[in-house]
Amino acid sequence: MENSQTTTPHTTSALVPQPSTLEGHHHNILVDDHHRSSSSGGRTFLKSTATSSSSPSSNITPTTRRTRHRVDAGEPRGCFNNYYSPRNIFQNSSSSPISTNLVGNSSAPEYYFQPMKMLSDFIGNSHSHFNSHNNTAASQLLLREMLQKKKIGYEDDVSEISRERENQHSDESIGCSSGVNNNNNNNNNNNNNEEIKINGCKKRKLYQPQRSDFDDDQEDFKDPDDELEMEYKHRDSADEDEEMLKSPMAPLTRQLLTCERKQIPRSILQSWKENFKSTLMTHINELVDSQFNVLFGSIGNSLQHPASNSHQPSSRQQSITPPPSSIPSSGPSDQVLNKNHFNGGGSVLLNENDKLRMRFYRPPYSSALAGLAASNNRDVYEDDGPLSLVVTPKKKRHKVTDTRLTPRAVSRLLGNGSTPSDHYMESTPSPRPQMPSPPTSVPISLPTSVAIPNPSLTESRHLFAPYAPLFNSVRSSLESPPTMIPHSMINPADYVQQLREISAAQQQAHRDLQREPVHQQTILERERGGSAGSADSGDTTGGSFDITPGVVYGPGHSSSTLTPMHLRKAKLMFFWVRYPSSAVLKMYFPDIKFNKNNTAQLVKWFSNFREFYYIQMEKYARQALSEGIKIAEDIHVSTENELYRVLNLHYNRNNHIEVPTNFRYVVEQTLREFFKAIQSGKDAEQSWKKAIYKQIIARLDDPVPEYFKSPNFLEQLE
DNA sequence: GGGTGGCCTG
DNA sequence: CAGGCCACCC
């Protein structure tokens, strides 16, 4: 089939833009850019009215309004906008929280996430701790607790505090107003809403099960508040060992230390030890205090003392830290904070390992605290619709994955088995550069683009085990024995957490049961539990399941989690079907235990695939038109065409399979249809694409090969 | 009213 | 890719 069409090179090139051709036509090349930048091919509803877009001869009807005129869902007002561009394609990469996952995925697994829990424990413990020792006034306790929670919120983003302040500045008098008036630079209008709008979104996430705040944090490495992270890490790193040895969990601590020693220069450890004992508690207390003060400061001094007093029964530190204004309060911790203040500033104290960890490890503190604070605030301020300043933890997007880099590729990158500490590059959107992998024992991470599962990282190991050789290999080389010390504990910061957690384990029980790391058994039960168990209950505030969506106990066990591998598979399926029904999809993912959410997710994937597909179609159709093609039949798509390559790159990036020949035909037909529609000016109509979608494209679906149903298929994808 | 699919946005 | 929204369909 191809032959017939490709036989006439000149024709082909003329029709479907090919690189070489494009160069010749400067004009054409620009088309993309115009579209890209103006996001308009013709009508831009959003951005500009009559963008200068030089778009081809085709009319550009400046439809100024952005109102949705769609006659039919989806078939919009012909928006020519939003051509996908590399930028669009990669745009998320920088913000992808996935990077975190990588760590877990490759070898660090669930351990990695414990810090979050520990953090929560820590916090919780602190609370109870305080409370238990101060029964003086119930009211005070309550208030204190509230405050503390709030504080925690602040703490969450130490670095963000300033930001928060700016935002919430208006209400220094947090007391009553904090929850009400503040928070909202963003949500001024939302105060009245029952539902909390987060960044304009008030609905729960459909695909990403609601995750506890903690979990959320775990995943995201990338919070805006890097500084904060730095601060905490730093602070912690500066201190910790000895205390640990004396703690109840000494044995564990020792283990950790041992581990650490392997990585860290002795000298560093020594210094840590020396500093640790004297500073550990101080840091902790100060941390708490400073946060308290932040709150108190805004609320009023009157509360300050009681709080601080109640604080530490042991009264290790009574010092009252400076008011909010000087957030980084005085004291050791402050110094650290200041030092870290940034971008390298803190590096002074860091050795390579530290740095590494800093990248890999996301201190539970920040986000976790924020999350906790948020949740707590809800409790406390039940009546207040709006949440306190701290609240609105930004929703993190959990992109299932980016399969640009195959596991194999990763393994190649890994080479010796050490990790490509790609996190250094995590902000780089581009395809993973091959980084020499620093020999690190610490959290090993894979490039963010490596498939990491969705939220449910905790189970990544299990998830991938059956499928990806890569992961197995990685694990074999990198993964520690079962007894492996949690990576999370490697970082001194974690020690603190751990301490707190253990020492106060009992007290927190009431609160974070739901946050508990889910035991596999539990998970399994949940999954079996049917609807409830599945990540469905998105509504529930806690939606805890998402955390560990699906655990694969081994081949043959189904999971409710769609992994990057599944995504890859879905993309490949797109070569056959553009409009698969959910029923069909379910058939082809026998290893998935479907529920409402993951079904929707899968369907959404195809929707996204189509979107990309159609965007490309329109784009190239217009190019063809601009190149002077008069007859749709003159358009031929060969496997060499740029369009084809782009599509292949998108759906079959690593050439996992040979693209079915029919796909080329489908592409060609689609392109022609778009071309004809544009040529005839139909694109001026509201839903001009709809006809193409339904009458043409949807009918070109082919049956997906049976082998896609094979449980081994994913493995074959590597 | 639920399901579906497209558009827009991040 | 995901979230949200919306319009359509049944």
TrEMBL record:
Residues 430-441 have a biased composition (Pro residues). Keywords: Developmental protein, DNA-binding, Homeobox, Nucleus, Transcription, Transcription regulation. Residues 23-36, 158-172 have a biased composition (Basic and acidic residues). GO terms for cellular component: nucleus. Residues 1-21 have a biased composition (Polar residues). It is found in: Nucleus. InterPro entries: Homeo_prospero_dom (IPR023082), Prospero_homeodomain (IPR039350). Residues 48-64, 181-193, 533-544 have a biased composition (Low complexity). Residues 1-77, 158-195, 303-342, 412-442, 522-547 are annotated as: Disordered. Residues 559-718 form the Prospero domain. The keyword Methyltransferase does not apply. PROSITE patterns: HOMEO_PROSPERO (PS51818). It holds the Pfam family HPD. It comes from the Eukaryota. One of its GO terms (biological process) is glial cell differentiation. GO terms for molecular function: DNA-binding transcription factor activity, RNA polymerase II-specific; RNA polymerase II cis-regulatory region sequence-specific DNA binding. This is Homeobox protein prospero. It comes from Allacma fusca. The lineage of its organism: Eukaryota, Metazoa, Ecdysozoa, Arthropoda, Hexapoda.
